[in-house]
Design brief:
CATH class of the largest domain in chain A: Mainly Alpha
Subcellular location (chain A): Cell membrane
Number of helices of chain A: 8
Largest sheet of chain A: none
Helix content of chain A: over 70%
Family (chain A): Belongs to the complex I subunit 6 family.
EC number (chain A): 7.1.1.-
Oligomer: heterodimer
Membrane topology (chain A): Multi-pass membrane protein
Keywords (chain A): Cell membrane, Membrane, NAD, Oxidoreductase, Quinone, Transmembrane, Transmembrane helix
Largest sheet of chain B: none
């Protein structure tokens, strides 16, 4: 009973906030609606018993990705007049994307109506282990059964990260504003200060 | 508690519902009270370190100062700037406060006194604490004023940076305990050190992790020396600048509830939680919650000690510490600790 209620609550909120993401005038509002959608999707994950996935959804998407979205979108200087001016220019492109999406929807619903796809029976390794916890079973699949694919995915991500850093990193020649902590700590009063007793009427050579 | 309500003649569903609500109230109300008292303690500690008296007028020893402040902000007028984005402006303190309370659902106060004894307790806390940045960012943007906005930018970057190393440090603890359940993590520390000391923190590989965790907690809760988001000499009051009365108070309550949560996490993950410090039978007669609160209070004292003695970091130093020092060290320790545990046959 309460599961059904919770499911419909979460599902309705996911759909409603997803609609609001594209309906909201203000991009910051869009991102905030997107966060609400992520949140309710995590709720749905908890309902199907995948609490580990739910926690990851919150940590990765809500905790990191959406913060960066918000970070960028907040800095935008939004000019609504300019947004509307681009409408006519982008209209054909929008229509094309809408047609593609509509075709996908029709195919999807048609395929769903045609009945289930025969995938065969789950054999051995990937079958749900009922006694192990969520985290342990995901760990077993990732690190025991598919360890090479998992490592390959990790390397691809690493390469992407290195590429992004190489493209954006610029070595600055002047060291102004950059702090060499070890140099600061190594400095002592003897080499940092000089005691001079100049004669009256004379300056000091530095 | 469900059994108690069932013994009153209720069905299981109603008894469970009532027990959960009672549990939430049993955590939230004492938490609010302790936040009020802890603000008083904080001010007294700063005063003692600065050779001042601190609050000493309202009530005996000034004990009621926080309640007087609470009453004051309660009676003030809520001002919403005309250029502010109203909905988000009002929502931001509510988000901060709710998120700060929600994380307490999985905290075990003793072996049995825990509201939600879930398998992914630690991940839940990590998820909820990563949400606390939204209150700051939303308030900063919605205020439509430059200082709150700077503060929101700083908060977003700072909290993401330190969450990464906190995540790796927690992975080290989880490697030792073999579980995300907070109660099981506490149980795994029983007799951990030489068979007598109930703490992960004394292990030579985990002690540096604890030091880094403590510093990251300071950064995560935006305490001095990492309080760049409300640096009063640069940003007036940061994201709270435009807030008044209860909306301001909600920020304060949320902030201190977060600080208490970080203190209790220090106690739970590294210093034995509700276990007595030494694995000696007579000490177990003292209820677990007493040990836990004593440890938590000690860490809170350390938080205010740091606040009273350390100057503020510069922003580039903060980022350097997070990304160039803590991230490589904690990542290295994950590798070293998992290697050590494999070599010593910890996993059987």
């Amino acid at each position: 009973m309460i599961q059904t209620l919770a499911f419909y609550l979460f599902a309705a909120l996911v759909i409603a906030s997803a609609v609001m993401v594209i309906m909201a005038r203000n991009p910051v509002h869009s991102v905030l609606w997107l966060i609400l959608a992520f949140f309710n999707a995590a709720g749905l994950m908890v309902l199907v018993g995948a609490e580990f996935i739910a926690a990851l959804l919150l940590i990765v998407y809500v905790g990191a990705v959406a913060v960066l979205f918000l970070f960028v979108v907040m800095m935008l200087d939004i000019d609504f007049a300019e947004l509307r001016a681009g409408f006519v220019k982008n209209f054909p492109l929008g229509i094309a994307i809408a047609l593609v999406l509509a075709a996908e929807l029709i195919f999807g619903i048609g395929a769903y109506q045609a009945g289930q796809l025969e995938l065969g029976v789950a054999s051995g390794v990937a079958a749900p282990a009922l006694d192990a916890s969520n985290t342990a079973s995901i760990g077993a699949v990732l690190y025991r059964d598919y360890v090479f694919l998992f490592e390959a995915a990790g390397i691809i991500l690493l390469v992407a990260m290195v590429g992004a850093i190489v493209l954006t990193h610029r070595r600055t020649e002047n060291a102004r504003g950059q702090q060499d902590i070890s140099r600061q700590v190594r400095r002592n009063p003897d080499e940092a200060t000089v005691m001079k007793q100049p004669e009256v009427g004379r300056g000091v050579d530095l | 508690m469900t059994e108690f309500f069932q013994s009153l003649g209720l069905t299981y569903e109603w008894a469970w519902g009532l027990a959960t609500i009672a549990g939430i109230l049993l955590i939230a109300l004492p938490l609010m009270l302790s936040v009020a008292m802890v603000i008083y303690v904080d001010r007294k500690v700063w005063a003692a370190i600065n050779l001042r008296r601190g609050p000493n007028v309202v009530g005996p020893f000034g004990l009621l100062q926080s309640f007087a402040d609470g009453l004051k902000v309660f009676l003030q007028e809520t001002i919403i700037p005309s250029a502010a984005n109203k909905g988000i402006f009002i929502l931001a303190p509510i988000v901060t406060f709710t998120v700060a309370l929600a994380a307490w659902a999985v905290v075990p106060f003793s072996a049995t006194a825990v509201l939600a004894d879930i398998n992914i307790g630690l991940l839940y806390i990590l998820a909820i604490s990563s949400l606390s940045v939204y209150g700051v960012v939303m308030s900063g943007w919605a205020s439509n004023s430059k200082y709150p906005f700077f503060s929101a930018m700083r908060a977003a970057a700072q909290m993401i940076s330190y969450e990464v190393s906190i995540g790796f440090i927690l992975v080290c603890v989880v490697l030792f305990a073999g579980t995300f359940n907070l109660n099981d993590i506490v149980r795994a520390q029983e007799g951990f050190g030489l068979g007598v000391i109930n703490a992960y923190g004394i292990h030579p590989l985990l002690f540096p992790m604890w030091v880094m965790f403590f510093i990251s907690c300071l950064a995560e809760t935006q305490r001095v020396p990492f309080d760049l988001t409300e640096a009063e000499s640069e940003l007036v009051a940061g994201y709270q600048t435009e807030y008044s009365s209860m909306s301001f108070a909600l920020f304060w309550l949320g902030e201190y509830a977060n600080i208490l949560l970080m203190c209790i996490l220090n106690a739970l993950l590294f210093w034995g939680g509700w276990l007595p410090p030494i694995d000696w039978a007579p000490l177990y007669y003292v209820p677990g919650i007493v040990w836990l609160l004593l440890k938590t209070f000690f860490f809170f004292f350390m938080f205010s000690w740091v606040m009273a003695t350390v100057p503020r970091y510069r922003y580039d130093q903060l980022m350097r510490l997070g990304w160039k020092v803590f991230l490589p060290i904690s990542l290295g320790f994950v590798v070293v600790i998992s290697g050590y545990l494999m070599a010593t046959g910890h996993f059987g």
